[in-house]
């Protein structure tokens, strides 16, 4: 537990399920007040709010598409209207879809870039502008992926969005360090969430994925949320522009594990 997080306010995009939900629930356990952003499934978001409230926490569900500037502004607006301030902004919403590059249309390319990269820009910019206007210490956390580093055929737009997100994170971390705004990324490996549920439900696919993970297991959303809580807290006060890999060692070139090469 991080006592400094009590009564702080966080916006978490795409938090009605998966990693975003786990982050929201963890921050609520830390007694933070949280904005649960959802794109289309209101019931899912409402369930997260109820779960948090049942444990004595405070949360509000807000619809919004992270690729739309007005919707992103509305997330901040709701945080201010409901809880009176903003302390931490977490860009978590993201999408991926397997499409070989030669078959990908411009619209399919654009959709992933719009959500994963432009959404990152809109969310970060909205939060940073608020922190600057209020001369406030700020904290932005971006949920990236091991694919900010590992190329991923069939997911070109996704890998580009995440590697672009890495440079975006580092650049704004540098741009605003003097203004006491920290910006960091968390890069999950294979985590058990709806984004890959179908793939991991297939035993052969799951085996193939586990073969890429030195720790030989799929990660849990709560394990990513633990990194988010640390980055949100003062315990990470000297960390900015960093990527924390939460990947069971996936980025350690597992093919070399037995001294090959
Ligand atoms: P998920 O599909 O369970 O959750 C993604 C969330 O983003 C959903 O709630 C969805 O509604 C929301 N979302 C999608 N488009 C949106 C939009 N336009 N506006 C607002 N919200 C939108 O997936 P997840 O695994 O929880 O993914 C969360 C983040 O973690 C993503 O950025 C993803 O790229 C990243 N990630 C996941 C894994 C993994 O293995 N699960 C690995 C690496 C990175």
Automatic annotation (TrEMBL):
Keywords: Oxidoreductase. GO terms for molecular function: oxidoreductase activity. It comes from the Bacteria. InterPro entries: NAD(P)-bd_dom_sf (IPR036291), Sc_DH/Rdtase_CS (IPR020904), SDR (IPR050259), SDR_fam (IPR002347). The keyword Nucleotidyltransferase does not apply. GO terms for biological process: bile acid metabolic process. Belongs to the short-chain dehydrogenases/reductases (SDR) family. This is Glucose-1-dehydrogenase. It comes from Bombilactobacillus mellis. The lineage of its organism: Bacteria, Bacillati, Bacillota, Bacilli, Lactobacillales.
